[in-house]
Every structure is written in structure tokens, then in C-alpha cells.
Amino acid sequence: MSCTERKMPRRSLPCPPTPLRMRDSIYSAPYLRLRDELRLEPKTWLVTGVAGFIGSNLLEQLLDLGQTVVGLDNFATGYRANLDELLVGDRRGEFRLVEGDIRDLAVCRAACDGVDYLLHHAALASVPRSVDDPTESTSVNVGGFLNMLIAGRDAGVRRVVYASSSAVYGDLAAVPQVETRVGNPLSPYAADKNANEVYADVFGRTYGLEIVGLRYFNIFGRRQDPAGAYAAVIPRWVSNLLNGETCHIYGDGETTRDFCHVQDAVQANVLAALAPASASGEVYNVGRGSETSLNELFRMIRLGLAGYENEVASQTPVYESFRPGDVRRSVADISKARRYLGFEPTFSVAEGLGEALEWYAARVQESKSLIA
Predict the structure, then answer these.
(1) Between β-strands 159-165 and 117-120, what pairing exists: parallel, antiparallel or unpaired?
(2) At how many degrees (to 10) do helices 294-306 and 233-242 cross?
(3) pLDDT by residue (tens digit) across 232-264?
């Protein structure tokens, strides 16, 4: 078995900007109730991809709720700094890191030992990357997912919650996107996520494993990586604007996406893990249920960053051709998640951006201070 297992030490680091998670009163009643129950009766959770964007935010919430968390990551796309940031001061929960690859079944088995709930977020989550290298994408996203299902089944976990994607809707023209209607996949990544949903359904019916899929739309927030060729649009634009670099918009800018703050994705995971058995065996859209055009998004980011760097206010984007695999409009119908999970998005795009921009601006300032 090629994995490293250790407890992460506490670090003494500068305090990050105050996250929106502190505003507990804004959450829905079902979510607040579940959080109280977890504080009283802590569970053990496995978060795969724990050093990544969504994984690290899940870890943060679970530790604050006093849970025991096992994290699995090979740091191919995640960052140790994301874990260091969380292990500051007094957090109520316990964390143990298993360092290894989900393509190694023995590693997956070791991570699942003694776990109540498995939150699977380890993936190569990029449409362009999957187009460039479909073999690697499928190896991680499908082969690794199958290993986690096998390990979770054999370990007797209570439920698996896994990250699917709005990419499964493919070329479906109808909006909003509803779980019962999907189109033809437009990328290998979309095919990977479609295959995950098929495998999840088969494992549920064949082995009785409780599984819930979350079709994420455009999740954004703190710790979303702005580096690399495959960075998501919000962190990439933020980084470019703060560093005086050009922002590119593919198409005319009227392409729309459903941008959902990461704390709402975290909420959906906890709700999905603890929902009644009748909610299992299903997939649910996770978004805000509203559209934002890329032009509008750029203006919001530029306005928000102008408060940190005055020269940002005058920057304009460069428009280029549409990219292969991109869809014109994307917006989630979240009525199913509302009904069966009690999911209720709590952060507007503007609120979420405000918190994310504060975090990114602080990191850029830290970098400049180190260089100086």
C-alpha cells in the first residue's frame, strides 16, 4: 500500500479573513438543526480531495462542528497550504491525513476504515484538461471513483456523497436544467461524471450502498486555485486583475452560468449525508438557481477589486472565440434538493464574491510583502 498516514500538527499562522460561515443565523432551519445534532453526537467523516478547493472547505466546517475527519489526498491538484490554514488555533474536531492516490484500492480501503460518512471530491475537475488528456481524466475520475465505492461498501460506511457536475447536461438546450433530463456529453470530463452516476446507481441497487450524487454548477469561493492553465473563471480573473494581466472572455460574454458559493456546497454535502434513507439513490442539483452572464460577472469582480487596487477599475476584457465543450446557458433547477434535502442557498453571488475577493486580495498582498 503506497500511502502515508499521519495527524496534522497545529500551526501558528496569520488569521485569514473572517469567513461567511461565522454568520450561522442565515442558514436554513434544517441545516442548523443537523449542525446542532452533529455537535452533540460527532461522527467520523472521510473527505477525499481534502486539500483541494471544496474538500478543504468541507474539512473546515466539519472540524468546527467537532467532527473527526480523515482526509485523503495525493496533492496532485490540492495544496498543503489549504490544510495549514485550517489547523490554526483551537478547532474542536480531530483530523488525520492519509496521503495517497484514489487509483490505489489499498489506499482507499485504509482511508475508509472506521468511517461513518464518505464525501468524495477527489477528481481532475476540468473540462479543458479532460479534452487535452482524456486517459488521465478517466483514470482518476472513473477508476478512482469505482475504488472509493468498493472501499466504502466493504468498510460499511453509512452513506457516500459524491461530487457530480452540471457538465452531465451536455448539449441540452432547455433551461433550467432538471435532474431528469440530460443531453449528450460535450467533453471527456462530462462523460466521466455521467459514468460516475451510472456506477453509483448500480452500487446502490446491487449492494445496497446508500449513495447521493451532487451535480455541482459553478462553485466558487476561498481557496479556489487561480494558478495553472485550467483554473476556473473567477479565481483566474481575480488573479489577472490584481496582477495587471489580461482577462479573456470566450464568446460574446452573454454566456450564463449558475455561480454558487462554496459554503452552500458544504451545506448540501452535510444535508445529503444525513438526509432520510428515501433521499438516497438520487442525484441533486447544487446551485443558486439563477443565471449570471460572464459580462456581468466580470463587472462585479472588477468593481469589488477596485477597492483593493485602484487601477483595476479601468481594465477591460479581451473577447475570443467560443471554446469546444462550452454550453451557452447553464442554470440549476434546485427544487428537488429543496424538497428532499432541505437545501436552501444562502449566499448571493455578490455576497460570495465579497468574501472570496477579500481572501484573494489578502493572499496577493502577502505575496507582495514576501517579495519586498
Answers:
(1) parallel
(2) 40
(3) 899 999 999 998 999 999 999 999 999 999 999
Which is nearest to 357 in space by CA: 312, 305, 310, 311? Answer: 305
Q: Where does 4-219+262-288+332-346 sit in CATH, by number?
A: 3.40.50.720
Query: Could you give the CA distance from residue 71 to residue 56 in angstroms, rounded to a whole number?
Result: 9
Check if 216 is active-site.
no
Query: Among positive and negative, which fits the CA dihedral 120, 122, 127, 133?
Result: negative
Q: Which residues contact 247 (CB under 8 A, 6 or more apart)?
A: 236, 237, 240, 241, 298, 315, 317, 318
- Which is the catalytic residue, given 27, 162, 189, 284? 189
Phi/psi of residue 193, nearest 5 degrees: -70, -35
Q: E strands, 126-191, where?
A: 159-165
Span 328-351, pLDDT tens digits: 899 999 999 999 999 999 999 999
Three-class secondary structure of residue 217 per DSSP = coil
pTM: 0.91
- Residue 121 to residues 97, 99, 214, 361, Cα–Cα distance (Å): 15, 15, 10, 26
What separation in angstroms does the CA of 296 have from each of 197, 242, 273, 291, 349? 33, 18, 34, 10, 11
pLDDT tens for residues 154-167?
A: 999 999 999 999 99
